[in-house]
Amino acid sequence: MRLEPFTMERDILEVGDEVEITESRLPTSWYYTAEPAAAMSGNYSVSERIKSAKGIVRKKELQGATWTVYIEFEE
After folding, report:
1. Is 37 a residue whose pLDDT tops 90?
2. Please, which residues bridge with residue 40 across strands?
3. What is the pLDDT of residue 75?
4. What DSSP state is assigned to residue 48?
5. Residue 67 contacts by C-beta under 8 Å, 6 or more apart in sequence?
6. Entry pTM
7. CA distances from 43 to 15, 17, 37, 48, 68 (A)
8. pLDDT above 90 covers what percent of the chain?
């Protein structure tokens, strides 16, 4: 199991929700979007890439004006 933080600006996802993620590439790293554009990950190096296409929201924290949701992946 792998637990990764995603930043969410609108209160869309709830604990227990299953989400699909989309992988996008930058020149030297990768980032992920929980669909439908609900939350975004930080940048990952090639060796840290997320291999799963789906995950489950396990934790949600309000931090100022945004939320951090922790999505668990089976890897």
Report:
1. no
2. 7, 33
3. 86
4. G
5. 7, 8, 9, 11, 13, 39, 60, 61
6. 0.92
7. 23, 23, 16, 9, 15
8. 96
Q: Is 46 strand, coil or helix?
A: helix
For residue 31, the model assigns a pLDDT of 97
Burial of 34 (0-12, 13-18, 19+ CB in 10 A): buried
Helices (H) and strands (E) counted in the chain, each on its own, are: 0, 6
In this prediction, residue 21 carries a pLDDT of 96
Domain ranges of the chain: 2-73
Pairing of strands 30-34, 39-41: antiparallel
Do 54 and 21 contact (CB within 8 A), yes or no? yes
d(CA 1, CA 74): 5
d(C-alpha 68, C-alpha 5), whole Å: 6
